[in-house]
Amino acid sequence: MAQPSPAPFSTYDAIGNREDLSNFIYMISPTDVPVMSKIARTSADATYHEWQTDSLAAAAQNTVIEGDDATTDVGTASVRRGNYCQISDKVPRVTGTQEAVNKAGRKSELAYQIMKRSKELKRDMELDICGNNARAAGDDSTARVSAGIPAWIATNESTSGTAPTGDGTDTRTNGTQRSFTETLLKAVLQSCWDEGGDPDCIVVGSFNKQQFSTFTGNATRNIGAQDKELIATVDVYESDFGSLEVVPDRFSRARDALVLETDRWALAYLRPFRIVNLAKDGDSDRKQLITEYSLEARNQAASGIVADLSTS
Fold first, then answer.
1. Which among 163, 176, 239, 301 is least buried, having the fewest CB atoms inside 10 angstroms?
2. How far is 16 from 19, CA to CA, in rounded Å?
């Protein structure tokens, strides 16, 4: 049906109609950082952060002759470990004009950009903590690097590649990828327990989280079954050595399943998160979001890794 003649004045003819722009900004980029959220916090006092690890002598039959002189047991020294403090930052910059104009979804452009960059910075840190990065001292032209979790775990592992030394000085060498199976996981859990560890968390990527949910062993579903409700995920794994939370992580290496005793890892902050006002040299404002931290591997033998997993 056509408009009557003469045609009425419509929105197609108008010039002065205001735009309709929602006053909300919708963002779906994920900001959850499960490993960062779960491990401990401590402080660092130098760019090279150090700590000590130790272990007891192996258990042995202990019998003493009645009336015998006491025999001194040989003492063993603790082991000194260390990791470098890495600097991470984000720097938003906004012109004076953009800060002054009327905006939809935010009052201050600079404040909005600071909020975005702070979330990005945490995502970057999660990626580095879970990354296969060896520590590096850095120099005047290269940045210091804090070794990530895969570069520390050497004692309890299942891999088709080559394990790192276990002190953060080198990375693990990737091997041929293979399917994630419950048999591989159980072997690592047993090794952790034999070493004295008590893992409480399994960190996996999206593909292997779904693969994990197909395991047929002792698994606790996330909610109780109800009529007309299909439950196809596993959130807690009941192993022979205790319960472990199963956590998907978007920023860990997809080819790794990290089996962590979370209180044996810590973020050691030399400089906690802060916002620094940078010098103004024109009609714009800059802020620097900066932090300096090291990953403290309090004892890598408490944790494990199932490495070289298929990712598709």
1. 176
2. 9
Of 202, 161, 162, 153, the closest CA to residue 182 belongs to 202
Burial 115-137 (b: 16+ CB within 10 A, else e): eebeeebbbebbbbbbbbbbbbe
Instruction: Give the end-to-end CA distance of the chain in Å, rounded to a whole number.
Output: 54
* pLDDT for the residue numbered 233: 63
| H or E stretch at 125 | helix 109-129
Query: Which residues on adjacent β-strands are paired with residue 70?
Result: none
- The domain in which residue 148 lies consists of 34-49+81-306
Q: What confidence tens digit (pLDDT) does each residue in 134-191 have?
A: 999 999 999 999 999 999 999 999 999 999 999 999 999 999 999 999 999 999 999 9
Give, in degrees to the nearest 5, the angle at Cα 268 between 272 and 206: 95
Whether residue 125 lies inside any domain: the answer is yes
* Rounded CA separation 197/209 (Å): 23
User: CA 195, CA 157: separation in Å to the nearest integer?
Assistant: 12
255 phi-psi bin (left φ>0, alpha ψ -120 to 50, beta other): alpha
Under DSSP, the state recorded for 255 is: T
What is the rounded distance in angstroms from the CA atom of residue 24 to the CA atom of residue 162?
A: 50
For residues 253 and 250, what is the distance between their CA atoms, to the nearest angstrom? 8
Domain count, the chain: 1
Residue 221 falls within a domain, yes or no?
yes
Cα 304 to Cα 195: distance, rounded to the nearest angstrom: 10
Please give the Cα distance from 4 to 220 (Å, whole number): 68
